[in-house]
Structures are given as structure tokens and as C-alpha cells.
Amino acid sequence: MLKSLRSRLLLSYLAVIVVALVLVAGTLFGFSTVSAVRYLPGLQRLAAISLTNQVDLLRLQQLGGSGDDVEQLLDGTSVAQDVRIIAADALSLRVVYDSAPNGAWLGHRITEVSEPRDLPFDAANNSIFGLYQSPDGDSWLVYAQPTLAFDRFIFLYAIPEPTPLSFFRDFFVNPLIGAGVIAFLLSILLALIITTSVARPLQRMAGAAEAIAEGDYDQALALEGPREVRRVANSFNSMARQVNATQQSQRDFVANVSHDLKTPITSIQGWSQALLDGTAVTPEEQQQAARIINSESERMARMVDDLLALARLSSGQLALTLEPVDVAQLVEDVAATLLPRAQEKQIELTVDVAPVPPVRGDADRLTQVITNLAANALTYTPPGGHVSLTLRTPEDDEVAIAVADDGPGIPAAELPRIFERFYQVDKSRTRVQEPGGHGLGLAIAKELVALHNGRIQVDSQEGRGSIFTVFLPAEAGPRP
Ligand code: ADP
Fold first, then answer.
1. What pLDDT is stored for residue 1 in this prediction?
2. Could you tell which of 370, 425, 429 is best to mutate to test the pocket of ligand 1, judged by most ligand atoms within 8 Å of the CB?
3. Would you say the CB of residue 447 lies under 6 angstroms from ligand 1?
């Protein structure tokens, strides 16, 4: 029953209404208990009855009515108005008439009528009003005003003393019930309005989510409804965009993999065919065919290795062997490894290493990252260029390894994309200069650095060169 938002809202409103009503009722009841105001309506009624009765008594006296006639009149008024009427002797104050069937007060003297304090009652002159303790112990609210007719008597009008409960019941219960009903109706309306404003966008969201589940990723929700719902819709939209982008990159990935594998396979097929059908006749031609088959299969093997590494990185299966790494040594080692290649290409390779704190990481993986960046620099920098590896601590708790070259640089528009899988700025350029690149190196490097809680930054200017900087958090401890 309480599953829907509407019923929950309604129930909470109902609870608030009930609590509010109980509080108001309690306050009013407390007020009825302590205040003499509860006597006011009763006294006003008695005064009104007394006044009407005075007129009737006066008329009766003018007509020469007897004692029986007076009693009859008083009996009639008592029954009609549901009020007890007493006639007492004006001098002795002894009761000579009591409208109550048992005439219990007959013969008693009504001497003590206590006037409640702080009672805002505007009584007629010389009237008597207040509480009277009857001979049988009950408390009565009584009222008498000076008599014009039959002035040997005092006519006293009495009702049982109004209790706080009876006052509360007579004057507050109905308004409170009315207020409760109105508040409940209003809360139904409010719950309807709120649930509609929340439910409609939610239904749209559910529809869009189903569409995504069925493969239609192009979903954008209008931002409407309460702020929280708009936030969810906003998050939904960015999620949909993300899913769309992921799907797209997956499609691109498959297309790229197939394309990049197909190229060496075609080459291998062609050259092996040439060997088989005897097209490559001379030893030189056969040598060339074997060399190409060998290098293309190496290229394919490298690519498959990279793909496997990426797959492991994406699925979180690649476990790092964490240990304190001497980054200075690591950079020196990478430079030493790549030196022959630099010399072969006539590129000046320099190393500038400042003392830095150790980094907690996987030495092999970090070597892979720096080697990749430095190898790229050597690949894209033309002979006669300059590649430098620099190690610094820009912040006390950070180590920065910069690989700079004065090669062709990367166009600003391409920079945001170079870390994407298979992205190559200019495939033809890569191929011509150094076969083997397939646009996975930077994607792997980025993932590996992220695994070390670090980041890669690239600054590049077309025609002037590029600087790739890897920032890694330093292991806490004193600097060497
Ligand atoms: P690749 O195997 O093609 O080198 P990477 O992911 O390592 O793949 O690099 C992506 C692309 O970024 C490269 O194809 C190249 O266009 C560009 N790039 C990377 N490093 C450099 C650099 N030092 N100078 C110029 N371009 C670079």
C-alpha cells in the first residue's frame, strides 16, 4: 500500500496534520482548564433567558397572574431552555421554588455565589452571577438580575458548571475536525501536484533507459521538475552520452583492430605467395620476402601484446608490483637503452636528473611508460634533432619526468585525442618514418600512469616540438 510516492506523501502529510491538530487541541484544552472564559457562553445564555423571562413575568403580573401561573411559566421556561430556575425570597434568600423535579434546593438559603476571577462578563447592574455549591454537592453556574415583576423574589437561573471538557467539546471539537478535513483535502491536492511533477520526469527517464537497453543510445532528457529530479536527469544525460561514446569507441576499436591486423596479414600473404609460386626467384628477392614476412609478423605480435595489455588494464586485471622506485636510475636506464637508436638516427639524446624522492610504483611498468614516450620522441624527431629526459620535483610530494623533443610537434586540434586508442595524428607520416606504430602506446601509458595515481601532460607546438610530462606522487619520506 505504501509503495507509491503518492501514498507515502499522503501518509506523511496525514501524520503532520494529526500531530498539529493534537498539539492545537492540547493547547486549547489547557486554555479551557485554566481560564474562566469557559463560563462566559453559559452566563450569556442565562442572562438572555433571564431577560426574556423578566418580560414574561412582568406581563403576567400586569394580567394579575397567580403564584401557580408564575410556577407554570417558570416550569415551561426551564423545560424549553434546559435550565434550572430557582425563586428565592428576596429578603431571606430562602428557596421557595425549584424547577428541578425533585425540588432539592427548596428551603435552602442561597447565600454564597462565588464570582470567578478574571471573567470578562458584562453583567447587568446589581446582578448576581458565579458558581454556587448546591446542598447536594454539585457545582452550578448561576445568574440572577434584579426583578422588576414579583420583586419579593429573586429569580435565579442555573446550569451545571461547564467543565473544561464540555467547553472544549462544545466550542473546539467541530472547528478542529473541520480544519483537519480541509488540511487533508489540501494535502491530497498537494501530494497529487508533487507526485505528478516528480513522476512525469521519472517516467520519461524510465522510457529513455529502456530505449538505451534496446540499443538506441541517442537519448537526451529535458531538465524539468524539482531540483533533485533535474539533477538525476542531468546525470542520466551524461551517462547516456558516456554510453554512446563508449559504444562508438568500441565500434571504432573493432574497426581499427581489424584494419591494423589486416594490413600486415595482406602483406604476409602476398610475400609468402610470392615465395610459394616462385615469383620471388633470386636469392635477394627471397631474402626480401622473408624479411618483410618476419617484420610484419613482429608488428602483429607487438600489436596483439599491446591489445592484451590494454584489455588487462581496462578490466583491472593488471596487478602492479609496488615497491620504492629510484626514478633517477630508471630514467638513466631508459636513456641508455635508447642511446643506440638515437645515435643511429643521429639524434642527440640528453639526460638531466635532479635528486628526487623515491616513488612507490612498479619499476617495469614505469620503465615501459618512459620508454614509450622517449621512443615516440625518437620516432617523430627527424635526424639532427634533440631529445631530452628531465627529472624534477615541481612540488615536494610530486616527481615529474619530462620527455622533450624538437620534432614536428602535434597540431593543437589533435592534442586532446592522442591518448585515444589507435589514434594517430598522421598515419602516413608514422609509417614513412618508422613502421610499427599503431596508436596504442600513449593509451597504454596513460592507463599505467593512472594506475600509479599519476597523470600525463602534453605540451606541443607544431613545428617546434613536444614535451610529454609524467607526474607521479612521491612516496612519503625524506628526500635523498
Ligand atoms: P604510435 O604507435 O602511433 O606512436 P602512440 O599512442 O604512441 O601511437 O601515439 C599516438 C600519436 O601521437 C602518434 O601516432 C603521433 O601522431 C603522436 N605523437 C606521439 N608522440 C609524439 C611526439 N613526440 N611528437 C609528435 N607526435 C607524437
1. 61
2. 425
3. no
